[in-house]
Amino acid sequence: MVKIGSIELPEFPLLLAPMEDVSDPPFRALCKEQGADVVYTEFISSEGLIRNAAKSTIKLDIYEKERPVGIQIFGANLDSMLQAIDIVEQSNPDIIDINFGCPVKKVVSKGAGAGILKDICLMEKLTAEMVKRTKLPVTVKTRLGWDHDSIRIVEVAERLQDVGIKALSIHGRTRAQMYKGSADWGPIADVKNNPRMHIPIFGNGDVNSPERAVEMRDQYGLDGAMIGRASIGNPWFFKQVKHYFETGTHLPPISMLERVEAARRHLKMSIEWKGEVLGVLETRRHYTNYFKGIPNFKPYRNKMVTSDRSEDVFRAFDEVEEQFSDYQFA
User: Fold this and answer.
1) Are 178 and 135 in contact (CB under 8 A)?
2) 52 burial class (0-12, 13-18, 19+ CB within 10 angstroms)?
3) Is 147 helix (H, G, I), strand (E, B) or coil?
4) Which of 51, 58, 115, 174 is the most exposed place for a label (fewest CB within 10 A)?
5) pLDDT digits (tens, 9 = 90+) for 69-112
6) Whole-angstrom Cα distance, residue 131 to residue 255?
7) Which residues are CB-neighbours of 272 under 8 A, at least 6 positions away?
C-alpha cells in the first residue's frame, strides 16, 4: 500500500498528471472510471486565484466522484502562494500539489514552475511555508533539474521531504529538454533508493505503454506512475496498465462503439461544464487519439477539429459510428 499523508492508495498507483486544457473535470471523470487512482487538476496560477481571474477560479471545480483529487498551483511569490492555499482549501481537495516543473517560458520567466529549479533555497522556503499553512497533504511535482549540468534532484527531494511534503512526482527530463528526447528514470530511482527518503516517489515521463509502467515499477522500483500524454484521448490507458499488471497480457483493443461513446460523453460533459464554445474547442485535442489508426479517417477528423458547433461534431461521431462500426483496432 502507498500512502499520501493519510490517503491510502493501492500498490503502485496510477496518477493522472496535471495538464493544461486537458485534465479538466470531464476528462478526469473518464480517467477515474478507467482506473486512475489519483487525479490532479490543471495547474492553476496563484496570481490568477488571488485576483479572482475567471480562467483560474473555474479550475477549482472538483466533484466527489473524482476523489482522491489534488489541486495543483504554481507561482514564485510567497504571499501569493499562501493566499492561494487559503482559496484552494475552500474547494476541499484531498491534496494540494505545487508545480515546480512546468517548462513553459511564460511560467519560467516569472521564476515559477521549473524556473524555481534555479533557486533551490527559494523552492525549499516556499514549500515549507505552504506546508505550515494547511492541514491538507502537500505534494510537489518537479523535474530533474534546470539542465543536465545542474541536476541535484536527490538533494532537492531530501530538502522538500524535510520541510513536510507527503509525496514527490518527478518528470525524468530537465527544463532545458522541455518534452524532447527520452525521459531518464535513473535519477528518479536514485531518489527512491536514497535511504533518507520515506515518502512516495512517483515517476513521470514516457510511461506510454503497460510494459513501460512495469519497467518503472520493477526495474526502477518507484512507488507509482504519473501518466500524462499517454492518456490524452485514451482514458483507457489506466485500465490497460492495471490489466497488464494483473495478467501479463494486453486488454483487447477498445472497440469503435466504446470510443465513439467516450468521445460523445466527453464533449457533452465539457459543454455542460464550460459552455458550448470552450467545450467544443478544448476537447478537440483528444479526437486524434480517440480514433487513432483508422484508415481514411481524415475527413471525419477535420469535421471534429474545425467545427465550432457541437451539433456538427456530434453528427461526425454518428457518421464515424455508422461508417466504421465493424473496424477492428489492432
Assistant:
1) no
2) exposed
3) coil
4) 51
5) 999 999 989 999 999 999 999 999 999 999 998 888 888 888 88
6) 45
7) 279
Q: Which three cell numbers stand for residue 3?
A: 500512502
Per-residue model confidence (pLDDT) at position 328: 79
The CATH number of the structural domain formed by 256-323 is 1.10.1200
Give CA separation, 298 vs 292, 304, 306, 308, 317, in Å: 10, 10, 12, 18, 13
Q: Cβ distance 95 to 70 under 8 Å?
A: yes
- Which residues are identified as catalytic? 102
The distance in angstroms from the start CA to the end CA of the chain is 34
Residues 6+ apart with CB under 8 A from 62: 25, 41, 69, 71, 91, 92, 93
**33 DSSP 8-state letter:** H
Residue-by-residue DSSP string for 69-120: EEEEEE-S-HHHHHHHHHHHHTT--SEEEEEE----HHHHTTT-GGGGGG-H
* Residue in this structure with the C-alpha cell 533508493, named with its chain if needed: 193
Rg of the chain over all Cα atoms, to the nearest angstrom: 20
| Ranges of the chain with pLDDT below 50 | none
Measured CA to CA, the distance from residue 85 to residue 90 in angstroms comes to 9
Domain boundaries, the chain: 2-247, 256-323
Phi and psi torsions of 238, nearest 5°: -65, -45
